[in-house]
Amino acid sequence: MQLMKEIINLIKKEKLPLLVKTIVVFALVAGFLVLIAEQSSNSSGIKTFFDAVWWAFVTITTVGYGDISPVTPTGKILGVFVMFGGIGLTSVFTATISSIMIERRINVNKGLETVSCKNHLIISGWNSNGLSLLETLRKDTAFDNNTEIVLNGVFAETELAEIRDRFRDLSFYYVKGDISKEVILKRTNVVACKLVVILSDNKESIKVSDDHTILKTLAIKSLNHKVKVIAELNNSENVDHLKRAHVDEIILNGEFNPFLLSSATCDQGMSDILRELMDHSDEGASFTKVKIPRGLYGKTFLDVALHFRKEHQAIAIGIITEAKNIGLQEILNSESSAIDAFIKMAFERSKKKIPDATHKQKSTVLNPSDDTVIGDNDFAILIANQII
User: Fold this and answer.
1) Fewer CB within 10 Å of terminal CB in the chain, N or C?
2) Is the whole model's pTM more than 0.70, yes or no?
3) How far apart are CA 6 and CA 13, in angstroms?
4) Are 301 and 316 contacting, i.e. CB atoms less than 8 angstroms apart?
5) pLDDT value at 8 more than 90
6) Taking the CB of residue 312, how many other CB atoms lie within 10 A of it?
7) Which residue intervals of the chain are DSSP H helices?
């Protein structure tokens, strides 16, 4: 329906109705004149006004069925004028239709058209997290890849082409301009969308970007207070201002932004849960790493989970194993050979210290099987309400 309205508006803009009226009037007048000219001939196939108008339209459109045609000299002369007039009018008509289609296509590519999709996702603004967000959404089973995505902002043609080429399995529309302005907001069809993600724009300074994010949220909520808005902020001091704009979820700028943004997009409230778990304040649950007690060495992960749940009301979700690397010093100290002695001597002469194991190798296993055996280098990953 929206597409038809746009086409009708373009038709009106190009004065196509006036051209159609001109063609119809030209055909009626030509048909009337030919009918008068052919009345004197009994062999003419043009007997009625309908026959005359039919012949005029067939001639104007250059179809030329040949079923009926004028036979009198006057009728044939009129026919010549109708032919040339029809060629001109038909050319103008087809050229106008073509220009309407081409203009609309150019406007779509430039982001100047109103989108007609519904239940779509709007991404306003752009930074390095944008590509990561799209990549994460594409892989997330909770996100429907058939959901149409409207990109809003100011994109270079090459940038848009790169995004479309990289994510060919996703459907994109582009609306150019500032979404905080009502005319741009309406072009994105925000009243029919289900979700808006506002990214911190990399073309603006941190302060301007945060102020712009707040303004965008206010504009979106004023037009559609039911739509879910997820906004990215650079400065935590602006969180309260954004909350007053009735934003649904806030993502503070950081390395986990793509994951948090995609989580918030697919599962409402998930970003709040993750933020609380990563917050190490005294209140609420958070992630913590604890050395597993000696008494649990050689036992299973299930035993560890039950121990921490019973003793500390904590939930064990994984294991970190920290294995110390074997350094050159340890190798040379065990059962020295002639080669070992030579290496030691070379280091001593160069007055350099023999390299030692200065770091540990870490391996993390989340949600291990219940029968995983615990070693003396293992640490437990917990979700706990208190320091253990």
Assistant:
1) N
2) no
3) 10
4) yes
5) no
6) 17
7) 2-13, 16-38, 49-60, 73-110, 128-139, 157-166, 182-187, 206-223, 239-244, 257-266, 270-278, 301-312, 328-333, 338-349
Q: Report pLDDT digits (tens) over 233-264.
A: 888 888 889 989 989 888 887 656 666 666 66
Residues in the chain: 388
CA distance 346 to 352: 9
Q: Which two tokens stand for residue 32?
A: 């009337």
Asked if residue 318 lies in contact with residue 364, where contact means CB atoms within 8 angstroms, the answer is yes
| Angle (CA) 362 256 163, round 5° | 120
Classify residue 312: in a domain, yes or no: yes
- How many whole angstroms separate alpha carbon 233 and alpha carbon 209? 8
Q: Which residues contact 24 (CB under 8 A, 6 or more apart)?
A: none
Give the other-Cβ count within 10 Å of 134's Cβ: 20
Q: Decide if 211 is inside a domain.
A: yes
Angle (deg, nearest 10), helices 128-139 and 257-266: 50
For 316-374, the DSSP string reads EEEEEEEEEPPPHHHHHHSS--HHHHHHHHHHHHTT-PPP---SEEEEEEES--TTPBP
Nearest C-alpha neighbor of 56 from the set 97, 37, 95, 17 = 37
Q: Are residues 27 and 77 in the same domain?
A: yes
Q: How many CB atoms lie within 10 A of CB 301?
A: 23
The total domain count for the chain is 3
Of the candidates 288, 298, 300, the residue with the CA atom closest to the CA atom of residue 376: 298
What is the span of the domain harbouring residue 106? Answer: 2-110
Residue 115 lies inside a defined structural domain of this protein: no
User: In the block, which residue shows the tokens 């790493």?
Assistant: 289
Q: Provide the mean pLDDT of the chain.
A: 80
